[in-house]
Amino acid sequence: MKKFSSEFIEQVRQANDIVSVVSEYVSLKQQGRNFWACCPFHHEKTASFSVAADKGFFYCFGCHAAGDVFAFIMKQENLSFTEAVTRLAERAHISLPKTEQSPQETARQNLCRRFFEINEMAGNFFHNCLLQSSLGKEGLAYFHSRHVSDDTIRAFKLGFAPDSWHMLTKAFQQRGVSGAELVRLGLAKEKNGNFYDAFRKRVIFPIRDGRGRIVGFGGRVLDDSKPKYLNSPETPIFNKRHILFALDMAQPAIYKEGCAILVEGYMDVVSAHNRGITNVVASLGTAFTTEQARLLQRQAAQLVLAYDMDAAGRQATMRAMEIVRGLHVSIRVLSLGQGKDPDEYITTVGPDAFRQAVAAAPNTLDYMLQTALQTYDSTVPEGKSAIMASIMPAVARIDDRIVLEAFLTKAAQRLQVEETAVRSEFNRFVERHPELKQGKLVITPHLERRLADSRGTDVMAAAEENILRYLMEYPHTCERIQEMIPYTLFVNPLRQHIYQFILDAYAEKRTYTKADIQDRLSVEEEKELARIMVLQDVPLDERVLNDYVKRFHLAGLQRQYAEHSKRAAAFSRTGDPQVMKELAICKEINEKIRKWSCRGERS
């Protein structure tokens, strides 16, 4: 039985343009009279979801989902028709008419209202135990040891469950809450007809829905006992797949900044908000879900994954990246130094450093490449192959051909291999995996010649290019790099001259601009610098810089060794005693090569 009259339903329909409503969930692009997007109801690479604005209907040519604006909201939000009409009426600020409900709808609403009421009572109970009772002394000490302020404790309504088997249960039963209700909400457990508290000696994190209503709780132990976290079960008002911890508090900042930061734990969220970083939310002890991704998609165009970078965290990051792929959300991955989680990092280093780390977080492809480079030795062929094998499953799923081409170019530069080899490996992978429906890349003789001609044949090309580009972008690093890489170690004459001009310009003013350098260059040198500056950027972190320094010195020493070895051979053929001197020099150079080769190796 419908709750609303046909006239009211039509009023709500007219007030909710279907294009506007659908746009809150997916990014629509107009083509002709219709609007198109990748379907929000199934995974696809090519947009087959069409919205006819003039007709008020949608249709997916892939999964065949179809209907009007009410059908869209019902399917997207898993709502009944009545709930969908109510949701859209609220969206359009239309007052609901007073009409009769079915007995089932009335019972469900009353049950939900009752559960919200009991959860609110429980939230007050735990919060008061923490702040207004000696029973909460241990919990309050825990939060203070984690540098959580009293204002943040009140804002999150954090609490403490006393070390008691019956305190909450008895108090609530005296107030008319049945043991069965407490069990249904996960606040109590039952054994042989007796009820006892489910949360004991735990700090409590209330979990709210988007409207700020408490739908459940998370409890953390204060010692090493198991389980570390205890969470409320699924109830008519609590579905973990559809809830993000602190989203109600984070929404304003997420909307304002256009960016949401997703972390793993309750304390990661609390710590961030405590230090003024309020666009942070967390999934609820489960893997990040599609429903949670869509909650964030409505608020922000960018998502930063800030999971712990242990093995489990890296796996969770990979799963989250796969879930968000196709939702038209830009994803970046935050990897904090020394294995710290966000809570520890913010506490020890500070919120400004955390914000800087977030701003510098690489996109998902760069993150995967960086992780692979840290895992395998990129200086040996076997390591290069392992790196390509580890990133290829994700690379082969790139939908955007321009992004794909650019990334493969970058990967080739980082690995110091020919781009044609990387493209060939990509083609072999997609050939073995036809289910990806990914087309091969064309590798023509013209492309091979162009790539070779633009770089040259010397093995130091990529290192020279990246050092020059980095110096052009960051003049303040010039003195340090000059100390590590002498001018004479550059092989290519054009790049060597550019490097010398940069050093000269810095020596004059202790800084320089791009114009300062360009004014000193010949036409050929200017062309070479322009070519370098439009190449894909390679982040020059400390590890990469040290690797380049090692490569420069090894290449220089190897050239010296070849030269003196050649001289020794010539002296040997003529019986010249100078051969002993040259052999001694070769031995000395060989020892330097050995020492440089050992630098930075894993112990």
How far is the N terminus from the C terminus? 72 Å
Q: Provide the helix percentage.
A: 40-55%
Q: Sheet with the most strands?
A: 5 strands, antiparallel
Shape, per Cα inertia axes: elongated
**Integer count of domains:** 6
Rounded Rg? 31 Å
Give the CATH H-level superfamily of the largest domain.
DNA primase, catalytic core, N-terminal domain
Q: The CATH topology of the largest domain is what?
A: DNA primase DNAg catalytic core, N-terminal domain
Strand order of the largest sheet: 1-2-3-4-5
CATH architectural category of the largest domain = Alpha-Beta Complex
Strand content: 5-15%
Q: Identify low-pLDDT runs.
A: none
| Strand segment tally | 15
Mean pLDDT: 83
CATH class of the largest domain: Alpha Beta
Structural class: alpha+beta
Helical stretch tally: 27
Describe this structure in words.
- 34% of the residues are buried.
- With 603 residues, this protein is α+β, with helices and mostly antiparallel strands.
- It starts with 5 loop residues before the first helix and ends in a 5-residue tail after the last helix.
- It has 27 helices and 15 strands.
- The mean pLDDT is 83.
- 54% of the residues lie in helices and 10% in strands.
- The strands form four sheets. The chain has a five-stranded antiparallel β-sheet. The chain has a four-stranded antiparallel β-sheet with strand order 6-9-10-11, sandwiched between helices. A four-stranded parallel β-sheet has the order 13-12-14-15.
- The protein folds into six domains: 6-91, Zinc finger, CHC2-typedomain (DNA Primase, Chain A), CATH 3.90.580; 104-238, DNA primase, catalytic core, N-terminal domain (DNA primase DNAg catalytic core, N-terminal domain), CATH 3.90.980; 242-361, Dna Topoisomerase Vi A Subunit, Chain: A, domain 2 (3-Layer(aba) Sandwich), CATH 3.40.1360; 367-455, no CATH class; 461-533, no CATH class; 542-598.
